[in-house]
TrEMBL record:
Organism: Arabis alpina
Sequence ranges assigned to domain Purple acid phosphatase C-terminal in this UniProt record: 381-438
UniProt family annotation: Belongs to the metallophosphoesterase superfamily. Purple acid phosphatase family.
CDD domains associated with the record: MPP_PAPs (cd00839)
Catalytic activity: a phosphate monoester + H2O = an alcohol + phosphate
Name of the protein in question: Purple acid phosphatase
The EC number(s) this enzyme carries: 3.1.3.2
Amino acid sequence: MKIMRVYFISFLLLGVLVQLCNGGITSGYLRAADLPDDMPLDSDVFTVPSGPNTPQQVHVTQGNYEGNGVIISWVTPVKPGSNTVRYWKENGKPKSQAEATINTYKFFNYTSGYIHHCIIDDLEFDMKYYYEIGSGKWRRRFWFFTPPKPGPDVPYTFGLIGDLGQTYDSNRTLSHYEMNPGKGQAVLFVGDLSYADRYPFHDNNRWDTWGRFVERNAAYQPWIWTAGNHEIDYVPDIGEIEPFKPYMNRYLTPYKASGSISPLWYSIKRASAYIIVMSCYSSYGIYTPQYKWLEKEFQRVNRTETPWLIVLVHSPFYHSYVHHYMEGETLRVLYEPWFVKYKVDVVFAGHVHAYERSERVSNIAYNLVNGLCEPVPDESAPVYITIGDGGNSEGLLTDMIEPQPSYSAFREPSFGHGLLEIKNRTHAYFSWNRNQDGYSIEADSMLLLNRFWQNTKKRLLDAV
Ligand SMILES: [Fe+2]
């Protein structure tokens, strides 16, 4: 009888343990409860460059589909200034020139400076280029590297930053990214840039300060833009009814090159990666332009040329924090079957101010009557990484769904950034670096096996 009782109690305890260990790891790190403060306007990171009308807020992004083009953007505060970009290869001559377009916009009682955008196509792959903007004494010089030509085994390293804002924590995140020994070569930015919309009348001066803040990195390597909810800037109360006006005036994307009709959704090739950027704040339902574009887009990805298929979208499909829980559900229901069918490797999202990495799961079997509404392990599914932890003034989300769901592999509400190091067609390494650690300490990491090439022998045989 005694033995039976011991067995029974052990059985009960085991049951409780299974319940508690349902999901992955929830970090036990305890954070300060204070909200991060925006850096004051006289902070050195916002310094206006010397000179009467000197270019500021300089940033580059990819300028074409293949990766050998850039869009160089900057603002002159007083008057249009020179619209010429002079550029040249390292150790190369002669210097070439390209002309920028110039635009301004108004937002309630704010008038922007003169926003310059210069598209330069047909650069050499895998090359360091210098460029100069402005004129005379106040000319400014920067540089960037073009990526290697798209190819299956081209190593390349992307940084991952989301929901950055302009607080002291934002500055720590950017510094950690810059100091990371992994050396990111381009930033995949998953939306919510300046948080200017948190100021009275969406004070667009805070778009300018943000542009000056990130210039120290974004002028030297391309940031690949995704639109978040803080880019919408729709404020009918003050007559501002054109969504995304500040964002779309300031941050261009090469959308036409991928057949998109909107700067908010597009795709690019970069080295061995094919990157699809989605807009969850534009129409995305069936029959919409974004849906139709995506339908074709997935079909034209050539995994033999660009093995790594990456999706950027602001609102996560899978996360287990209380705030924003299931906001991405309608997107997931529509698009997850394609992610699985086309073997997307990894989906990066922001919005949730914390970090989380999912297991490879899918939840596509459910059809209203079969009751199969639980995510299940799926080797064709992507890993979903939520990295909306850039450091903005809204603070971290600490309330989590308990117990940790089985789809959640690791979660921690800390500020930080990610690094995706693509090694070859089969292997990539993702790491998460949180701000409270040293520059070279990873708080979470994962070796990614490419979904298309993971069974290399079979793929190669099929290709013969
Ligand atoms: Fe957001």
